[in-house]
Amino acid sequence: MLAPLPAARFALDDWKTTTIQFNYHISVDGMLYSVLYECTKKKVDAKATDTAIGIFYNHNRIASHHRLEGRTGQYSTVIGHMPEGHQKYLEWNGDRFRKWAERIGINTYTAVNAILTSKGVEQQTYRSCMGPLKLAEKYSDALLEAACKKALSYTASPSSKSIKNILVTGSDKLASKTYMACAFGMEACKQYFNTKYVRLPDLLIDLEMARTDGSYKKVMAKYANPVVLILDEWLLLKPTDSEQRNIFELLHWRRKKSSTIFCSQYEF
Predict the structure, then answer these.
(1) Which residues neighbour 189 within 8 Å (Cβ) at sequence distance 6 or greater?
(2) 3-state secondary structure 226-262
């Protein structure tokens, strides 16, 4: 008497011998699967079934993954396979870096996106992407945006180091406005003066929203109280009647008791 058929159909396993890449992944049918980073450059055997990928070294299984489907070039990465230096950036991801960069400006977004796509494994670029993030904190969003624009004029794929060099040397050619104004601002901070930098378009949006939600007086005080206020991109566009009123009130609040630095593209 014949035994009953198995519940699952018999499937042949595909085997291949491959070398673990420098990014601690192997490639199987155009998809990439991670292995413990310490095994980089070693030859391993990969077993592929319809649903899983097994990776063996000296006949011992060292990694398992669900088999990826769809577009080629996808990554299956196990956090435990990553070096500690890569793991500490996991709270950030490509989307979060891009959203942060987009908030600053199109040039910062383009530069950060170029860094994110510069390596085979996106996680390997996170450390480099932290560079511009720290530069924005040290200098300003406007200076970083200008530096990225300058870096992109040299190459479509600028590095974090090249952007930093532009900021350090001042070769973004902003010495006549933003760079010089921020230098005054940093000196004021060293003297313990309350100092604030803001783009005029951002300030006007902030005040308009404050009028709507009832927090106008509180928001106005945020800009009126600093001893030194740096207003960048001064009147690049003609302000509306409401915006003109907000500007007048801000300057009225700040009269005789504080200093305001205006940064403009206009020549005087």
Answers:
(1) 195
(2) CCEEEEECCCCCCCCHHHHHHHHHHHHHHCCCCEEEE
In the DSSP assignment, the letter for residue 68 is: P
List, for the chain, all residue ranges whose pLDDT scores fall below the cut of 50.
174-175, 268
CA distances from 246 to 16, 123, 164, 209, 239 (A): 69, 44, 36, 12, 10
Per-residue pLDDT, 175: 46
Query: Which amino acid, residue 38?
Result: E
* Residues contacting residue 165 through CB under 8 Å, at least 6 positions apart: 171
Q: Where are the domains of the chain?
A: 14-82, 94-169, 178-262
pLDDT tens per residue across span 171-185: 555 445 777 788 888
Helices (H), 81-123: 84-87, 94-104, 106-116
pLDDT tens digit string along 198-217?
988 889 989 989 888 889 99
Closest CA to 182 of 224, 143, 155, 148: 143
Q: In CATH terms, is domain 178-262 a member of 3.40.50.300?
A: yes
Nearest to 57 by CA among 14, 30, 17: 17
Q: What are phi and psi of 52, to 5 degrees?
A: -145, 160
How far CA 107 is from CA of 28, 56, 119, 158, 267, in Å, comes to 36, 45, 20, 11, 25
Question: What tokens were used for 132?
Answer: 């511009």
Structural tokens at position 130? 């932290």
Provide the pLDDT for residue 260: 93
